Amino acid sequence: MKKLVIITMAAGFMAISSTSLFAYEPTNSVPSADQPVKKKVDPAKRIEERRKFLASVGLAQADLKGLSPQNRKAKVKAAVDAKISALEQKQSAGSLTTEEQTNLAKLKKFEQHQVAKKNPTS
């Protein structure tokens, strides 16, 4: 009787552990081509980059404080659009510096990224 109980329990444990082996996914595997690679960014660096971005479009964190997410996005978009149009006017006048050229390129890239996030093609 004891032998039968032990064999039954062993068979049950083997059945449970074998199904969990199929679900095992190693954490240090290399992502495949269709999986996006997530980059970990230091929070302090992200905050500093956001401050620099907001300053480049003429906003401060205090300007956005207390706004709803939709109003915040709208205010940032309006500031980015205004800055892009001002820089494009300077570019057409021929008085754009190299720093302003890089800012214009970054702002256009940001704007394209926002459009792509809003209207995914896939």
Can you describe this structure?
This protein has 122 residues and is mainly alpha-helical. It has a domain at 41-122. It is built from 5 helices and no strands. Helix 4 (69-93) packs across helix 5. The model has no long low-confidence stretch (mean pLDDT 81).
In short, what is this structure?
With 122 residues, the chain is an all-alpha fold.
Summarize this structure as a short list of keywords or feature phrases.
122 residues, mainly alpha, 0% strand, elongated
Indicate the topology:
Blueprint: H1 2-22, H2 43-56, H3 61-64, H4 69-93, H5 98-118
Radius of gyration: 27 Å
In total, the number of strands is 0
- Distinct helical segment count: 5
Q: How would you spell out the order of helices and strands? A: HHHHH
